[in-house]
Design a protein that fits this description.
Layout lengths: L1 E6 L4 E3 L7 E6 L4 E4 L5 E5 L5 E5 L5 E5 L5 E5 L5 E6 L4 E5 L5 E6 L4 E5 L5 E5 L5 E5 L7
């Protein structure tokens, strides 16, 4: 299935898709998104102040762009790829399992709380005033 979903201010979305679905989701200010399922591709653009609670299964790809002040709570399973770009003042809480790849670019004043397991690769570029809390296990590359 392919979903093209545009919502207005204050909407809440609870979306369950089956294996191999593609989601293109654009939301306005203050939206909450709860999105799962195995093999899904998510292209998610949110406006200022959005909260994302995203749990994905094995092999998912996430392309996530957020504006100022967004909070991301992202839990991924084995083999996920995350491409995350955030603007000033964003907070990221990212927990990944074995073999995940993270490409994270943040702007001034971002806070990152990143915990990774064995074999993870992190590509992290931060600007002035960033705080990084990174715990890695055996075999990680930073």
């Amino acid at each position: 299935d392919t979903q093209h979903i545009s919502n207005n201010e204050g909407d809440t979305q609870h979306i369950s898709n089956n294996e191999g679905d593609t989601q293109h989701v654009s939301n306005n200010e203050g939206d909450t998104q709860h999105i799962p399922d195995e093999g899904d591709t998510q292209h998610i653009s949110n406006d200022e102040g959005d909260t994302q609670n995203i749990s994905n299964n094995e092999g998912d790809t996430q392309h996530i762009s957020n504006n100022e002040g967004d909070t991301q709570n992202i839990s991924n399973n084995e083999g996920d790829t995350q491409h995350v770009s955030n603007n000033e003042g964003d907070t990221q809480h990212i927990s990944n399992n074995e073999g995940d790849t993270q490409h994270v670019s943040n702007n001034e004043g971002d806070t990152q709380n990143i915990s990774n397991n064995e074999g993870d690769t992190q590509h992290v570029s931060n600007n002035e005033g960033d705080t990084q809390h990174i715990s890695n296990n055996e075999g990680d590359t930073q």
